[in-house]
């Protein structure tokens, strides 16, 4: 029992040498350089967003294409190219239905289409769906470029 008490006193005495519970006066605050400081975080350079089909044309071009689809695409035979022109931008192209109209969810009647755009950058080809909603309005869906390098 005496040995255990002596061991506890001895261990407590050693621990007391390293503890300063009420004062920080004896704490060494000198920096020696033995630990490398953390690197300053650098801002991450965000990559610019990838170009999109929608962003590759002026909004008025898309409106010209949509208007043509609304007026003539429903009755156009498969494969017939319908010409569109936008006098505001000078851009032009064709839209052609590739297959018959099919019903989709949400009451949409859709035709797969091929679209060409001719502008100052050259001729580009797109494909997607032209869909008529229950109220008769037309929208373009799932448009993607045949050659992504030309976006």
Description of the molecule:
The protein is of the alpha+beta class. It has a domain at 54-150. 21% of the residues lie in helices and 30% in strands. The protein contains two helices and six strands. The protein has helices spanning 2-18, 59-73; strands at residues 81-85, 92-97, 102-104, 108-119, 122-132, 138-145. Strands 1, 2, 3, 4, 5 and 6 form a six-stranded antiparallel β-sheet that branches. The longest helix has 17 residues, at 2-18. The chain is elongated. The mean pLDDT is 78. Residues 1-17 form the signal peptide. Keywords: Signal. Pfam families: 17kDa_Anti_2. This is Outer membrane surface antigen.
Write a compact overview of the structure shown:
Keywords: Signal. 21% of the residues lie in helices and 30% in strands. By secondary structure, it is an alpha+beta fold.
* Portion in helices: 10-25%
- Evaluate the radius of gyration: 36 Å
What global shape is seen?
elongated
Strand content: 25-35%
Distance between the termini: 87 Å
The secondary-structure class comes to: alpha+beta
Query: How would you sum up the major sheet?
Result: 6 strands, antiparallel
Helical segment count: 2
**Average pLDDT across residues?**
78
Number of strands: 6
